[in-house]
Amino acid sequence: MTKAIRLQKHGGPEVLELVDIDVPPPAADEVTVRHHAVGLNFIDIYFRTGLYKQPLPHGLGAEAAGVVEAVGRDVTHVKVGDRVAYGQSPLGAYAERHNAKAMHVVKLPKDIDFETAAAMMLKGLTVQYLFRQTYRLQGNETILFHAAAGGVGLIACQWAKALGVKLIGTVSSPEKAALAREHGAWETIDYSREDVAKRVLELTDGKKVPVVYDGVGKSTWEASLDSVQPRGLVVSFGNASGAVEGVNLGVLASKGSLYVTRPTLGHYATSAEKVQAAAAELFDLVAKKKIKLTIDQRFPLAQAGEAQAALAARKTTGATVFTLD
Ligand SMILES: NC(=O)c1ccc[n+]([C@@H]2O[C@H](COP(=O)([O-])OP(=O)(O)OC[C@H]3O[C@@H](n4cnc5c(N)ncnc54)[C@H](OP(=O)(O)O)[C@@H]3O)[C@@H](O)[C@H]2O)c1
Questions:
Q1: Which residues lie with the beta carbon below 6 Å from any ligand 1 atom?
Q2: Is residue 308 within 8 Å of residue 287, measured between CB atoms?
Q3: What is the pLDDT of residues 44-100, one digit of tens each?
Q4: In 10 A of CB 180, how many CB atoms?
Q5: pTM of the entire structure?
Q6: Ligand 1 centroid distance, CA of 147 (Å)
Q7: In the CATH scheme, what is the code of domain 139-262?
Q8: Largest Cα span, the chain
């Protein structure tokens, strides 16, 4: 039997239950991974509340690291005993072991431990596609990145610095501002008390930014549109404050013929080759110490509800992992 988090209905953190499940043998294109650490992500909360819907009952989680326990008959790139990690899977990574699709499973370099891997696969591969594919940063830009002290945010601060990009990061407290700066943010804006678009205008000498990365959603949408240059791009990649709804497209014309995309990792990580290449880029930056994973919270799996409550209440910084050893 395997201990795993399951939910019978959508709702608050209390719907998460630790139960015993059977993990079936892997399908032909799957890998069974015995987890040593599991990553917590905001998307897990969307699935818990039902903002993103999956037929119930279901598990949660899509990011983990551990050791390969079994492989399906078509799997050739990893074998039993390999140290691996993944940043996408069918829901259910909140568990002692889980079947992931082989195309999302990558071998871990020796110098990357399980907790570090569980903290960075989904978040780091997200920054990879945001910065290297959705809007390919060249190194001379000034950009706006919301929630810069979060899990994705602290990786973004460091990746931007490594690229030579000036990242203006929004945060909700002086402590989070200090953390974002320590991780390479060029400037920070406290969006709980400052006018974001006005500050962006000041910081860029009236030029605004060519691209805004917005994982906060509803509460930052207007500020994001007002901070981007004419014909610039707003990358709306998350809903931490609620979903952006009811957009009148005319607003894009009146604010400068803007572009908007609502991307998701799954549409970028579409093949094993693409996942391996993106992970290699991330691992290389980690090996060169350009990106250091900041794990500020650790919880046992049994406290998945508490962990999610802390994330939703903006009480976390950097990454959060569930430890299983
Ligand atoms: N589309 C994709 O492919 C993709 C992939 C990965 C992640 N994401 C998205 O990226 C975002 C960041 O993910 P993460 O897991 O790293 O989370 P996180 O950034 O660690 O946590 C979310 C942060 O958002 C900020 N926030 C602003 N308003 C909030 C509100 N009303 N409620 C809660 N938080 C609020 C908080 O920072 P402050 O206190 O500083 O405001 C909070 O710490 C999420 O929206 C997630 O869904 C998208």
A1: 41-43, 122-123, 126, 147, 149-153, 171-172, 176, 215-216, 219, 237-241, 263-265, 311-312, 314, 316
A2: no
A3: 999 999 999 999 999 999 999 999 999 999 999 999 999 999 999 999 999 999 999
A4: 29
A5: 0.98
A6: 6
A7: 3.40.50.720
A8: 60
